[in-house]
Specification:
Blueprint lengths: L5 H10 L8 H18 L20
């Protein structure tokens, strides 16, 4: 997976209501890219071919 750019991180922040400005943007970008790299390392081979199960929540009372 390619690293996210500053513009992509800024756009993701705006999508959730955050206005991330420099120099915090650089730190956030490095942190998100490090997290994505770490998560990529724990994916077992072939997981993409597994069909996800629907989440069925009990009715609220």
């Amino acid at each position: 997976m390619a690293d996210l750019t500053k513009d992509e991180v800024r756009a993701m922040g705006k999508a959730v209501g955050l206005d991330i400005q420099d120099p915090e943007l650089t730190e956030v970008m490095y942190s998100i890219n490090a997290l994505l790299e770490a998560l990529d390392g724990i994916n077992p081979p072939g997981w993409e071919s597994i069909e996800p199960l629907p989440i069925i929540l009990p009715p609220s009372q």
